[in-house]
Specification:
alpha+beta, six-stranded antiparallel β-sheet, 23% strand
Length: 480
């Protein structure tokens, strides 16, 4: 971070002076100081070397040894002053407190925001020496010949040839087509809308890549199992061929590619051609067909169970993919990524939903099975059903709790846009979406999961809208 921004930020930070220290916590390279009875937190971004205060909630719940040490020594203290050194990007946070002996104690939390050398150092200023109490990174002469950063050593700022050329910031600050009237607003935006957003997108992409790789593997396995299942259903044919070969053993000779025999298992005893392995003897060919028969008979139940198990696993992966695509919480994504490295997390079935009010609620099917359950079992006759025309996608249900005759236009358009987004046309415009009441939707017997027929529908042409963006619209709708 440029020196001028840090210095300008300190000038406008009198607002947080006098806040009482509550705790220091950490998540990755972000450290946060929370204050008692205050919504604001002071965030130290060691990825870009900046510091800002914000009301945005970030669950910084992790602690390390340094955090614990600072929490013990800064307990019940007050942030009395903020300063920046004249020669480099080093910010000082001054804390004071009265100890149990009614003596005033002074501490300095030093933020060395120098690229590649980021550090946080706690200094005890109760005496004149200014001794280091502890630091995030400890540095000995073996690592740096010019200074030590160790407990009990007098703090010295690093020697630097850094030159300050411009300390003035012109307002408004223009960044990413946004205008900011304060440096804190700019630094806050830069972290949450640039740095954090980039990390969220990167983590989401990594998880989705892992899940899609597993999905592809399971889909290949399912295809293979279905071939095996189809093969196992031929157990009767293998048995009949084995018996026919056994009964006509005298007619078999090694080297024959096939033999034509009378099939006494069928009416009118038609002729049947049985393929043979030219490299096998007559006895080996008979045994081969019996082996195929036994394998098909014993394996059919096992394969059917494996098909169902694999199909369920595929459904779970698709559900996870849907949820991850919608997840915008970095901490949740990080914790989730540890699970995807081992196995897919099995969750209780719960549809994705968006509460509107006591009259309406939107439900979204994430997989073909969920589409089936939502439409054929969950939804009621007066509910409304949405689905993209032509394109495969989610079934969207609007629950009509009060059985109202008319669906509000704003809600109708919202559900249609969500249906367009969760379809194969999510990156298109003017996507056709059909909607009708559930009473007009039918599922043909024996049809594939997610397949339905419907009538009395109307069609809207809309632009896709994600759940995250839809949630913002719903907030505005409910406030009005």
């Amino acid at each position: 971070m440029e020196y001028r921004y840090l210095k300008g930020w300190i000038k406008e930070s009198d607002y947080i002076k006098g806040f009482r220290f509550q705790g220091l916590s950490v998540f990755e390279d972000q450290y946060v100081i929370s204050f008692k009875k205050r919504k604001e937190i002071l965030q130290i971004d060691l990825s870009k070397g900046s510091v800002f205060y914000t009301k945005q909630k970030t669950p910084f719940t992790d602690e390390n040894g340094f955090c614990n040490y600072c929490n013990d020594h800064l307990k019940s203290s007050t942030l009395s002053d903020i300063n920046i050194l004249d020669n480099d990007r080093i910010v000082e946070l001054f804390f004071t407190r009265v100890n149990i002996y009614n003596q005033q104690e002074k501490f300095r939390l030093i933020l060395e925001l120098i690229p590649r050398y980021y550090n946080i150092i706690l200094v005890n200023d109760s005496d004149q020496d200014g001794l280091i109490s502890d630091s995030l990174k400890r540095i000995s002469f073996a690592e740096n010949t010019t200074r030590q950063v160790l407990p009990g050593v007098i703090y010295q700022s690093p020697s630097s040839d850094f030159k300050i050329t411009d300390t003035d910031v012109e307002f408004p600050i223009i960044f990413n087509y946004n205008s900011f009237d304060s440096i804190n607003q700019f630094l806050e935006y830069q972290y949450f809308n640039v740095i954090l957003e980039k990390r969220i997108n990167g983590e989401r992409s990594r998880i989705l890549k892992t899940l899609r790789k597993k999905l592809k593997s399971k889909e290949k396995k399912l295809e293979k199992l279905k071939v095996e299942l189809e093969d196992s259903l031929n157990e009767t044919i293998y048995y009949q061929k084995a018996e026919l070969l056994k009964a006509s053993f005298h007619a078999l000779k090694k080297g024959m590619k096939e033999v034509e025999l009378q099939n006494y298992f069928a009416e009118d005893y038609p002729m049947i051609t049985i393929e043979l392995n030219v490299e096998k003897s007559p006895q080996q060919n008979v045994e081969w067909y019996f082996k195929k028969y036994r394998k098909a008979k014993s394996g059919k139940i096992r394969i059917q169970e494996e098909v169902e198990k694999t199909d369920t696993f595929i459904d779970e992966i698709n559900r996870e993919i849907f949820d991850i695509e919608e997840q915008n919480d970095y901490v949740q994504l990080k914790s989730y990524s540890q699970k995807t490295d081992t196995k897919v997390t099995k969750k209780k079935k719960s549809y994705r939903k968006m509460f509107i009010d006591d009259c309406w609620e939107i439900f979204i099917g994430r997989t073909n099975r969920e589409n089936d359950e939502l439409t054929t079992r969950f939804a009621k006759p007066h509910d409304w059903w949405f689905h993209s025309r032509i394109f495969r996608g989610s079934h969207i249900i609007i629950r009509n709790y009060k059985k109202k005759a008319d669906l509000p236009d704003e809600l109708r358009n919202l559900a249609a846009r969500i249906a367009a987004y969760y379809s194969k046309a999510k990156k298109s415009e003017n996507v056709p979406v059909d909607f009708t009441q559930i009473r007009y939707v039918r599922k043909p017997r024996g049809s594939a999961a997610g397949f339905v027929t419907y009538k009395n529908q109307k069609t809207l042409y809309v632009n896709p809208l994600s759940m995250r963006d839809a949630a913002d619209i719903i907030k505005k709708m409910t406030k009005e």
